[in-house]
Amino acid sequence: MEPFTQSVVEIIKEIPEGKVMTYGQIASQAGNRRGARQVARFLHTLSTKYELPWHRVINSKGEISLSDFESSNLQKLLLESEGVKFTRSNTIDLNEFQYHKYDTFNDFDLI
DNA sequence: CACATGACGAGGG
DNA sequence: ACCCTCGCCATGT
Asked: Which residue range is the domain that position A22 belongs to?
């Protein structure tokens, strides 16, 4: 398997419950900042093959990016079932739910 | 080889 | 917030 694809698999596997990552974010972290579409295509075709938490991947606007109602609704339910909240406009607040592997502490909680 | 197609993303009006 | 355009790039026809 291609190294890029391999990294993508590993990165997605590491997304914790209740958190999400964007296609572009995953692509960057896997070493190709312009590979968002490849990440998407990979999930579209091979998500069943690797036991991945595919539902924790959304687009950069915080939207579920599936056209088919059945599957997009499933994705929403899976996310809600693990604590991810949707706004009134059916989007996810990335500030709250996006997973950053290398997050740094800030002072907000200490004030 | 030329062209169309996306589970994308950034930028501008 | 919405819509459009453009850049991107592996795959498919």
From this structure: 3-110
